[in-house]
């Protein structure tokens, strides 16, 4: 008699467990800051000063940073206990394993959704939206087209196999919601922690100097950590779509664009949009492909490089260096922009037009330009590497794949310009716009399927094939199926 299969609440896939660990680590970081705020005695003892009302207000403001986390963690504990008891009871009742697995999957989805919802509740601030609803709506509508254009541009930087659009939008959504909420939590914690646990300056009215001193470093590190966690989770769950440094740059830049979108809406809507024009120009025009997009693109590039390394220690070192480089560049940018905002009026004549059109782009170019140059150079090098690898893969295809990708088709796949020209010709050759568009899409699907087959062949030659990726026979069958549709008579389509 065989032993009955035991159903676990944690996912069976190792990559899924690691992705869950990354998500839980963000909550552990929040719990650590909460612990630091509680165990360290405050330097400013308002209770001994005889102001009990101020003590209550201080405690309230400190706890507001974590208003959703404590009840959320309690809910997670209750859900975990209920799930464990339910699965244990189902096993005792000899419920079939497949049914128990479906129950466990539902509980896992609920727990993961709760873990994601806690930082998401931080953005946007419900109080700000309630005070300035019209400003938030207008800022959202203004920033959406520019962000979508930037995502389209990032997606088309890939000349060969491209990251799927749903994956790209998921990365942007993580940056806009989860990473922004986590970063906002950490920034609010520092503002509260620094003013309560460090000595007051000589001028007691200058309390903001305490939080402003370390805020660039805190925000730079934790914001990049939140965005990098999203890239790490996507890397673990969708590793086969990380082909090289190109895929990493694209996913990282998309995550940064999502973060930039949420931050732009927040700053533009503040104080009923009093400085919306400046923030739109600086964040959605002049600095759209810089700032957060550039910083996180460097982190994503590190994951793309790690995809092609075999040693686990080299992979972890590369990812850690990429994250440190992004956080350092973010910190330097924040610190210098804050410094110049205070000092530039001493060097130049106060002129709003000169400040917006000249000084602001010059500052962005000086402090964010190096990160842009870095990820562009990495992207350029990655595209060359992909072209060389695909050329080798296409010339060494096994005989079984020769029908899926002929020599003429291989030459077309290596030239993005020729692929585009063929699709345009198919569009123009249609009897009507609808048929032309259908032919365009089918040819694009054929090229994408052939590039999938060639890219997996490239990874196989390098000894880095992903065991979760479709095998060569499945990819070949997909190409043949698309070719059969294209070769069918027009009346049969």
TrEMBL record:
PANTHER family: PROTEASE PRSW (PTHR36844)
Protein name (database record): PrsW family intramembrane metalloprotease
Pfam families, per database record: PrsW-protease (PF13367)
UniProt keyword terms in alphabetical order: Membrane, Transmembrane, Transmembrane helix
Annotated InterPro entries: PrsW
Transmembrane residue ranges: 18-36, 66-87, 107-123, 135-154, 166-186, 217-237, 244-262, 282-306, 318-336, 356-378
Recorded coiled-coil stretches: none
Signal peptide: none
């Amino acid at each position: 008699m065989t032993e009955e299969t035991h159903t676990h609440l944690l996912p069976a896939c190792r990559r899924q467990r690691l992705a869950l660990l990354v998500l839980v680590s963000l909550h552990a970081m929040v719990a650590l800051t909460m612990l630091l705020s509680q165990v360290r005695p405050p330097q400013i003892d308002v209770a001994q000063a005889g102001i009990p009302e101020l003590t209550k207000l201080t405690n309230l403001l400190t706890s507001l940073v974590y208003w959703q986390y404590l009840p959320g963690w309690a809910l997670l504990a209750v859900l975990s206990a209920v799930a464990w008891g339910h699965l244990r009871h189902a096993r005792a009742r000899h419920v079939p394993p497949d049914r128990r697995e479906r129950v466990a999957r539902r509980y896992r989805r609920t727990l993961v959704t709760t873990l994601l919802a806690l930082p998401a509740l931080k953005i946007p601030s419900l109080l700000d939206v309630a005070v300035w609803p019209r400003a938030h709506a207008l800022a959202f509508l203004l920033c959406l087209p520019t962000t979508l254009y930037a995502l389209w541009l990032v997606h088309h930087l890939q000349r060969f196999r491209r990251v799927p659009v749903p994956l790209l939008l998921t990365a942007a959504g993580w940056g806009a919601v989860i990473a922004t909420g986590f970063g906002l939590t950490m920034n609010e914690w520092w503002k509260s922690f620094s003013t309560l646990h460090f000595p007051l300056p000589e001028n007691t009215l200058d309390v903001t100097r305490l939080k402003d001193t370390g805020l660039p470093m805190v925000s730079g590190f934790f914001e990049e950590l939140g965005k990098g966690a999203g890239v790490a989770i996507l890397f673990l769950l969708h590793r086969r779509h990380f082909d090289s440094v190109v895929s990493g740059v694209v996913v990282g830049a998309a995550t940064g664009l999502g973060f930039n979108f949420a931050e732009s809406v927040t700053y533009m809507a503040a104080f009923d949009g009093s400085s919306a024009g400046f923030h739109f120009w600086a964040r959605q025009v002049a600095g759209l492909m810089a700032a957060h997009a550039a910083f996180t693109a460097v982190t994503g590039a590190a994951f793309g490089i790690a995809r092609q390394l075999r040693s686990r220690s080299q992979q972890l070192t590369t990812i850690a260096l990429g994250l440190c480089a992004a956080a350092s560049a973010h910190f330097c940018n924040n610190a210098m922009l804050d410094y110049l905002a205070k000092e530039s009026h001493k060097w130049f004549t106060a002129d709003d037009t000169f400040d917006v059109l000249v000084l602001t782009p010059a500052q962005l170019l000086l402090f964010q330009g190096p990160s842009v140059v870095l990820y562009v150079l990495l992207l350029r090098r990655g595209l060359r590497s992909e072209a060389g690898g695909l050329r080798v893969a296409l010339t060494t295809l096994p005989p079984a794949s020769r029908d899926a990708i002929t020599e003429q088709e291989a030459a077309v796949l290596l030239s993005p310009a020729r692929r585009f020209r063929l699709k345009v010709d198919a569009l123009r050759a249609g009897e009507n716009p609808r048929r032309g568009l259908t032919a365009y899409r089918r040819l694009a699907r054929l090229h994408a399927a052939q590039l999938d087959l060639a890219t997996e062949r490239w990874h196989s030659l390098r000894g880095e094939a992903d065991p979760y990726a479709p095998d060569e026979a499945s990819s070949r069958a997909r190409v043949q199926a698309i070719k059969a549709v294209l070769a069918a008579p027009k009346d049969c389509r």
